[in-house]
C-alpha cells in the first residue's frame, strides 16, 4: 500500500544531533557527535487521548528505528528513503506535564538516540449517565471474575511483543459517516460512578457493515460480557483497533485483514442499550480518541 505524505509536515520540527554510543560507555553525553538528523512530531503539546506522529529523517538513513515511550519500545516503519515514522499514544489519563519520547536507531551497527519533549495538556471530558438492566450490571462476584478474566485476555494481546507495522495513513472509517462520541466520558451507571469510556460510540442500524480501518491481523475474535461480539485487530507498531457489540463476526482469530475489508456487522450484543458500534483504539498501549488518527472520521 502506498504512503501519502503532505508536502509540508505541519507542527513542531525538532532538529537534534544523534550521538554514537560507545560500546563501553552508557553515558551518551560523553560520546562523539555523529551529525544531525531531523526528528519531527506533529504536535509538541498534545492533550490527553491524542496521537502523536513521529518522523525520523536522515542522510544516510538509519538501518532501523524505534520509539521508546512510557517504558516500552515500539518499531517505526519505513516511509521513504532515509525516513521512518511511528505513532505514539497519549493515554486519556496521562498526567499533564512534560514527558520524554526517545527515538532510537542503528546505522552500520552504531546505536543512535534522540529525545523529544512533549508537554501533555489536560482535556475536559464529558459526563455520561445512563441505566442498564440489573442483570447486566456488575455486582455479582462470579460475574466480576468473568469480567476480569476477559479483560486479562485483551491485555495479554495488547501487551504482547509489538509486531511489524502494517498500517498506512490515512486510515479508513470503520463505518460510513463515522463520527464517534463519548470518548473519555466519566460514566455514571445506575447511579454509580464507573470507569471512563475508552472508545467512541455511533448509533447505527443493526446489520450495518463494519470494516477494518487498516491492514492487520485479528488477534481476538470472540464474545465477552461488556462488548458482546468483539474483534481486536493488531496493525503493528503498537496500533490496535477494536470493534464491540457486533451482531456477527466475519473474520476469525489469526486471520489477516486488509484495509476496508468487511469484518462484521453492527449489533447490540453485550452490555448495550441498542444497536451501535463501539470502536476503540490502543496506540503504544494508550487509550486514545478514535477520532485521533487521520482519515478515521468521515467528514463527508
What distinguishing features does this structure have?
single chain; 300 residues; mainly beta; Immunoglobulin-like; Glucose Permease (Domain IIA); 2 domains; nine-stranded antiparallel beta sheet; 43% strand
Describe the structure.
There is one protein chain. With 300 residues, the protein is mainly beta. It has two domains: 13-120, Sandwich (Immunoglobulin-like), CATH 2.60.40; 127-288, Distorted Sandwich (Glucose Permease (Domain IIA)). It is 6% helix and 43% strand. The protein contains one helix and 21 strands. It has one helix spanning 141-159; strands at residues 13-19, 33-41, 51-57, 64-69, 72-75, 77-80, 83-89, 97-107, 110-120, 127-130, 186-189, 192-193, 199-203, 209-211, 216-224, 228-234, 239-249, 256-257, 262-266, 276-283, 286-288. Strands 13, 14, 15, 16, 17, 18, 19, 20 and 21 form a nine-stranded antiparallel β-sheet that branches. 37% of the residues are buried.
- Determine the fraction of residues in helical runs and give it as a percent range: under 10%
Bulk shape: globular
Strand coverage percent:
35-45%
Could you say how many structural domains there are in total?
2
**Cα distance spanning the termini:** 23 Å
Task: Summarize, please.
Helix content is 6%, strand content 43%. It is mainly beta and 300 residues long. It has two domains: 13-120, Macroglobulin (MG2) domain (Immunoglobulin-like), CATH 2.60.40.1930; 127-288, Glucose Permease (Domain IIA).
Amino acid at each position: 500500500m502506498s504512503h501519502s505524505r503532505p508536502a509540508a509536515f505541519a507542527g513542531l520540527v525538532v532538529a537534534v544531533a544523534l550521538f554514537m554510543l560507545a560500546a563501553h560507555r552508557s553515558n551518551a553525553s560523553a560520546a562523539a557527535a555523529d551529525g544531525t538528523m531531523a526528528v519531527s512530531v506533529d504536535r509538541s503539546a498534545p492533550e490527553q487521548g491524542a496521537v502523536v506522529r513521529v518522523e525520523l529523517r536522515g542522510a544516510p538513513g538509519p538501518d532501523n528505528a524505534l520509539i521508546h515511550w512510557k517504558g516500552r519500545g515500539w518499531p517505526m516503519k519505513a516511509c521513504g528513503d532515509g525516513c521512518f515514522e511511528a505513532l505514539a499514544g497519549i493515554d486519556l489519563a496521562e498526567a499533564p506535564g512534560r514527558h520524554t519520547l526517545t527515538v532510537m536507531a542503528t546505522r552500520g551497527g552504531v546505536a543512535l538516540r534522540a529525545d523529544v519533549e512533549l508537554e501533555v495538556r489536560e482535556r475536559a471530558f464529558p459526563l455520561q449517565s445512563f441505566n442498564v438492566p440489573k442483570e447486566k450490571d456488575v455486582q455479582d462476584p462470579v460475574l466480576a471474575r468473568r469480567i476480569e478474566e476477559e479483560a486479562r485476555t485483551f491485555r495479554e494481546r495488547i501487551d504482547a511483543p509489538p509486531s511489524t507495522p502494517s498500517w498506512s495513513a490515512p486510515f479508513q472509517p470503520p463505518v460510513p459517516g463515522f463520527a464517534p462520541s463519548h470518548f473519555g466520558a466519566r460514566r455514571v451507571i445506575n447511579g454509580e460512578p464507573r470507569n471512563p469510556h475508552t472508545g467512541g460510540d455511533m448509533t447505527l442500524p443493526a446489520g450495518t457493515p463494519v470494516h477494518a480501518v487498516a491492514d492487520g491481523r485479528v488477534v481476538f475474535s470472540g464474545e465477552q460480557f461488556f462488548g458482546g461480539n468483539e474483534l481486536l485487530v493488531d496493525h503493528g507498531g503498537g496500533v490496535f483497533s477494536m470493534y464491540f457489540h457486533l451482531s456477527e463476526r466475519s473474520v476469525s482469530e489469526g486471520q489477516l485483514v486488509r484495509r476496508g475489508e468487511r469484518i462484521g456487522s453492527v449489533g447490540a450484543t453485550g452490555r448495550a442499550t441498542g444497536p451501535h458500534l463501539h470502536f476503540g483504539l490502543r496506540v503504544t498501549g494508550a487509550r486514545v480518541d478514535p477520532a485521533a488518527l487521520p482519515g478515521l472520521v468521515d467528514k463527508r
